[in-house]
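Input chain follows. Return structure tokens only.
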Amino acid sequence: MIELRNETLSIHILDPVKDRRHLGTRYCWGGYIWQVSDNQKGPLLSGPDYPDSAPLPFNGQGLPEVLRHSVLFSGKPLTWEKNEGLIMGVGRVQKVGKDDPTTPEPEGFAITEPAPWIIEQWENEIIFSTQDGFEKWAYQLERRIRLTGRVITSETTLRNKGEEILPLHWFAHPFFTYTDGFATCQFYNPISMKDNVGFQLFNGLLTMKKRFLGEDNHFEMMELPEVTNLDVTLSHPLIKNIRFSSDFPLSMLPIWAGASTISIEPYMLTEIPPGEEKSWKLTYQFGAP
């Protein structure tokens, strides 16, 4: 893995070639943060299979991001037709069916040609860049990870290099650790939530109604005002807290929790015309140990 490190934090980032065993068809390969560790307290992130050292690629761990190839829930294709297509940040794929032995992915895709990545690294910053295309879609993608003190920023720029409108259905799927109690999340923007069996929200403070054990988990879609960015502070068992924010208005905001991890998933749904680009940023501020 590739490491960024300073006096307080260490970031381990997957190498798109050397760490292929951790990479599937769900998460973007470039800039995939696998783990963030406090140099005194240890690992700060988890995942659905954590602490398994070889989790299912579809489940993953850490701070992965996704450039979707289909519409959430409906499965309507975005960047593929019939049995072939493009998953931005992953490569060209062929649909083989969910039971095909050539792919362990629940989505049923086999990678026919991985996207090529160029990696540039400095002391506290790393850039992953690629460009790829298939039929009427073509794109250029840059993923920039920066470590400044106890703050990590993940910046993405996507440029449409094709002749058709490029649909962008992006989301982040960070896996924050909680143990020995219930996770709490303080939202600073005016969001709401319908009554449900997993979570409750009062005055911006989200808590868990129950402890999830074993395979138990819960997914819920939060209700957003017309325009709002993400700004939330999460409790953590090893450090003071983690503040998680975006520099763009949210299209959707699901929240999911399992037995030892909770994920707040900011979505951005838009379109990029030919020749134009879109940039956005996530910020993770890790509190003191």
